[in-house]
């Protein structure tokens, strides 16, 4: 008999009833150190008091009115995003997947309005993950996500990850946009080098194609800058944001320049819940915290500490690990085993991690993780790797 909850997830045999900071607790009181943060969502930790206060205050006033009316909390958050990014305008969604849908629509509508309705092709890259909607799986193109769900939405060209020469050849007068994650998450914590992002921007400028960046997982301070593309000194035309922007509350957004955003007129897109007062009150507080230069400097400092300790871990367990990948507090351990084996070994040490493609174990802690908790996490990974190597032997 099928479960009452549709069985589309391979869930771990764990149920948590409360969380605080970098820790989760089961009903029997067992505590787990969380290096997954809800897959980079709980950017400021579990039950962050600032976010609880923002949510509680708003919950006592107004939850939902729909986008038939002006929403003050939405406008405040949009103003903050415009102030701190390349963007001139913001559309709020409830998730990264919804943001992906609008990014596709916006890129194609832009060219339609420019009098070039045949310019609909969007170039994406191997290993990409942009969500689970029909457009998002067609954009990624992997058999794992698309098998059984045809016919797929047409108009996507898939290239090898990071291959600028292939991109140069693939760009034509039918190319509407190039769509890429500055740091792939599901694809195995693969960061595009700064020169590649600069090259992407230059090629788009040469051909007129729009540049869409997916910063759903790598944005909102995770790499030590508000958004990962800032390290390369470039700016996109359209950007997807979600996960960390809500600190655990469902919230996403599409950011765009005025030139591109102007194509989306009244009736061209909508969302019943998108930009609701609850989500935007929390998102505003997240932005106020994460945009503080001192906060971002601490992320960079802690990421250097964690990476140093992870390099030592790799050196101590060459039979289990190959290398450390990533930027900031979006790190990965390239494993010599299936990452799920390392995930399970970490469970025995009461440590939570996230598997990814290319045999990579994702480490996505709260940006508020302490130095002591980083040391604790490395010690637990060390014991897990020792146990795993012993069991394999």
TL;DR?
The chain is of the alpha/beta class and 393 residues long. Helix content is 38%, strand content 19%.
Q: How would you summarize the topology of this molecule?
A:
Elements (H helix, E strand, L loop, with lengths): L15 E5 L2 E4 L4 E4 L2 H4 L8 H11 L12 H13 L4 E5 L2 H18 L7 E5 L8 H7 L2 H4 L9 E4 L4 H7 L4 E6 L2 E2 L5 E2 L2 H14 L2 E5 L23 E4 L10 E5 L1 H4 L15 H14 L2 H24 L4 E7 L2 E6 L3 H9 L3 E2 L1 E3 L3 E4 L7 H22 L1
Parallel strand pairs: 3-15, 5-6, 5-7, 7-10, 10-11
Antiparallel strand pairs: 1-2, 2-3, 4-12, 8-9, 11-12, 13-14, 14-17, 16-17
Helix pairs in contact: 2-10, 3-10, 11-13, 12-13
Keywords:
single chain, 393 residues, alpha/beta, seven-stranded mixed β-sheet, four-stranded mixed β-sheet, 13 helices, globular
Could you characterize what this model shows?
- The structure is a single chain.
- The chain has 393 residues and is α/β, with parallel strands linked by helices.
- The protein has 13 helices and 17 strands.
- Strands 4-12-11-10-7-5-6 form a 7-stranded mixed β-sheet, sandwiched between helices. It has a 4-stranded mixed β-sheet with strand order 1-2-3-15. A 4-stranded antiparallel β-sheet has the order 13-14-17-16, covered by helices on one side.
- Helix 3 (72-84) runs parallel beside helix 10, helix 11 packs parallel to helix 13 (371-392) and helix 12 (339-347) packs across helix 13.
- The radius of gyration is 21 Å and the shape is globular.
- The two termini are 39 Å apart.
- The mean pLDDT is 96.
